[in-house]
Amino acid sequence: MDIEDVKEYVRCKLDVFTPNCELQCEEIGDGNLNYVFRVRDVNSGISVIVKQAGVTARISDEFKLSTDRNRIESEVLLLQDKLAPGLVPKVLQYDDVMSCCVMEDLSSYTILRTALTDEQRIFPLFADHITTFMANTLLLSSDVVMNHKDKKAAAAAFSNPELCEITEDLVYSEPFKNHNSRNDVFAPNEHFVEKEIYGDDELRLEAAKLKFQFMTNAQALLHGDLHTGSIFVTEKETKVIDPEFAFYGPMGYDIGNVIANLMFAWSHATAVNARTEYVQWLEQTIVDVVDLFRTKFTALWDASVQDVMAKEPGFRAYYLQNVMADSAAVAGLELIRRIVGLAGVKDISSIADEHDRIAAERVLLTAAKRLIKNRNEFEAGADYIGALKQAQHDVNWKTGRENDEQTSHIDYMGR
């Protein structure tokens, strides 16, 4: 649909606008896949979002996609609103003929990536909100809580092979292959990537193991693309959007994505010499996301677990340890793929000074390798901050910079 089509569509299909309404419509989509329109009645101020799925991705016509992803997104949002009330936008209508979803307009909110990268805003409640969302939507959709037949039926209903293939390619395969034409490496770091990523046999082996775990471990219903560009925020509220990549997979994929994208925000902040209070909040938020998730997951497990064998002493600790190890590995994969692969992030690409960007990328890639190779070591939030600080030290040392133990993390970036 074009703008005029969308205006006519909402007049005919929705009962939220009056017959004599004066509608304004604009296409606001900035993602890689779909078309997103905001429609507003000038007189009443009432507005909605119309999201339509096309048969190819906006990022590249190479990606041929089923429009069923719009059905999956709509149904997942409805389910997530039951599991984690108030943390996703309200769905008003899904239309399988036009492959579009009409939902609550969140224009009074800000995309988290924009708020962090452009505005350096602090959101004191974010860690609490996002960990509630992850603990509830992941654990409550898993075999330890759901009736096993119902869970298997849900896994079939949310089978999402085309979008899973994109993840398998862009996250788990292409960033580790130097002959891949879709990779987009920052030119001054090409030699570093060739040596540290393409040339690291151990790293590529671990990525292969993780790829097949992603493809075969139908653990819980994932959002599937839970980065800071898929989260709307205010100082008091958080809304998770765009679960079109949703499918049944390993819990750590969602958790690791949140952690990695907070690391991107942290890296940007240190590179541009952001104020100390903001950098400290980002570090504490990374810690809190890990630690609060563990606490909430444990409490929800005790309150909700149904499977008789899942109640065996020691099983909860075993299960959670595997989830956290996978989260660390996914955080590493996300760091690598956003720096090396096709779909980069503004946090890194907007670092204007070339030397600062070189250092920022090398620090994150160095930390990523440790997250993947030593994933079983990452149990608490402080472990992630330790990995970042150690990576700063290592990059500093390898590039011949002086390392004063009393120097701040901002100074480590060469500022």
From TrEMBL:
<feature type="domain" description="Aminoglycoside phosphotransferase">
    <location>
        <begin position="216"/>
        <end position="281"/>
    </location>
</feature>
<comment type="similarity">
    <text>Belongs to the methylthioribose kinase family.</text>
</comment>
<dbReference type="Pfam" id="PF01636">
    <property type="entry name" value="APH"/>
</dbReference>
<dbReference type="InterPro" id="IPR009212">
    <property type="entry name" value="Methylthioribose_kinase"/>
</dbReference>
<comment type="subunit">
    <text>Homodimer.</text>
</comment>
<dbReference type="InterPro" id="IPR002575">
    <property type="entry name" value="Aminoglycoside_PTrfase"/>
</dbReference>
<protein>
    <recommendedName>
        <fullName>S-methyl-5-thioribose kinase</fullName>
        <ecNumber>2.7.1.100</ecNumber>
    </recommendedName>
</protein>
<keyword id="KW-0067">ATP-binding</keyword>
<keyword id="KW-0547">Nucleotide-binding</keyword>
<dbReference type="GO" id="GO:0046522">
    <property type="term" value="F:S-methyl-5-thioribose kinase activity"/>
</dbReference>
<keyword id="KW-0808">Transferase</keyword>
<dbReference type="InterPro" id="IPR011009">
    <property type="entry name" value="Kinase-like_dom_sf"/>
</dbReference>
<keyword id="KW-0418">Kinase</keyword>
